[in-house]
Design goal:
Elements lengths: L4 E5 L6 H10 L3 E6 L8 H4 L4 E3 L2 H13 L6 E4 L6 H11 L2 E4 L7 H14 L3 E3 L7 H16 L5 E9 L4 H4 L5 H4 L2 H17 L2 E9 L3 E8 L2 E8 L7 H5 L4 E7 L2 E2 L9 H10 L4 E2 L4 H12 L18
Parallel strand pairs: 1-2, 1-4, 2-3, 4-5, 5-6, 7-10
Antiparallel strand pairs: 6-13, 7-11, 8-9, 9-10, 11-12
Helix pairs in contact: 1-11, 4-5, 6-9, 9-12
Length: about 325
């Protein structure tokens, strides 16, 4: 496969190293990168010869100059704050590059429709990172559910999703703590789980919210084939005691019909696998993300209900 030229928007963020690693491991080149923050020493570990800019206008001028010199910009990888994804995707497409965008690809479902129109206008593609669809254990789970439903078409599952990823005070000062920029807690840390659940258990039918705070969200999601109780938080106070004693700050759990699904390992190479699929024109498109974007947009805008009935057990910990 011929080596491709990449540019990167958002080189200083948490997720950028996974994209840099994926570009490197798939045998491609990063020729230009942008971030308003200059703490991008990570570039030395992957592409020390890449151009770098802290002003978007100069980054834009650099890519335009390269293009006019006959240097193609094949892909632009987007790791910017969530609220800027839509704009940066449009920039990539209009430059003549395909866009590879981190989750959540956009904040609202109507942005999906608009970007699909620009795909048609430019004849370029928007690819999204839905890494859990590449996880070996999640793929096995999907196959298991499909086999069970073939045997029993009326089967309906009970799912309990818990994801706690502790964050310090910086989180709430950064753009991630601003709902207008991040989409809120369910969008920022939960969207890939909602994508995974709809991928396995079908489309959403009902979406009830029990808690929706700055650091915690919880609710009940009714899907075609499952009832999902979910709890998401960046508050370390909700970590189970054994996790705290082990010195860990993250806890993820999926119970299906009260049985734990083990998928704590196998995350390190998922971006590289995603890039391999995209480079073969077999990755996930913007339309694949639409269902999960609709779910988190509803969570963001729905009123909470009283904690009655079938709510997640972790809700009892929340004051």
């Amino acid at each position: 496969m011929t080596s491709k030229n990449f540019a990167l928007i958002g080189a200083a963020g948490f997720i950028a190293p996974r994209h840099l690693k994926a570009i490197k491991e798939t045998g491609n080149r990063l020729i230009s990168a942008f971030d308003p923050n200059d703490s991008v020493g990570i570039l030395d570990s992957f592409f020390p010869d890449s151009d770098f800019f802290v002003e978007f206008e100069r980054f834009d001028r650099n890519l335009d100059k390269l293009k006019r010199q006959g240097v193609p910009i094949d892909y632009i990888s987007i790791c910017s704050p969530n609220y800027l994804h839509d704009s940066h995707i449009r920039f990539a497409l209009r430059l003549g590059a395909d866009a590879i965008c981190e989750k959540p690809i956009v904040l609202n479902p109507w942005n999906v429709e608009a970007l699909m129109e620009i795909e048609k206008e430019t004849n370029k593609k928007v690819w999204t990172i839905l890494q859990l669809r590449h996880h070996e254990e999640i793929i096995k789970l999907k196959q298991k559910v499909e086999n069970e439903i073939r045997e029993n078409p009326k089967k309906h599952y009970s799912v309990e999703l818990t994801y706690l990823t502790s964050r310090g005070n910086w989180y709430f000062i950064s753009w991630k703590g601003d709902e207008k920029k991040s989409g809120g807690i369910a969008t920022n840390i939960g969207v890939h789980f909602f994508d995974m659940l709809t991928w396995i258990f079908g489309k959403p039918k009902e979406n009830s919210i029990h808690i929706n705070k700055l650091d915690t969200a919880s609710g009940l999601l009714e899907l075609d084939r499952a009832t999902v109780r979910w709890f998401l938080s960046v508050n370390a106070n909700y970590l189970p005691e054994d996790i705290i004693k082990s010195g860990k700050r993250t806890f993820r759990s999926i119970l299906i019909d009260s049985k734990e699904i083990e998928f704590s390992e196998g995350f390190s190479d998922l971006h590289t696998i995603s890039y391999q699929s995209i480079l073969k024109e077999d990755g996930f498109r913007i339309s694949d993300a639409k269902q999960s974007i609709l779910i988190v947009q509803e969570i963001r805008n729905k009123s909470t209900k009283a904690l009655i009935g079938d709510f997640h057990p972790f809700c009892k910990k929340v004051e």
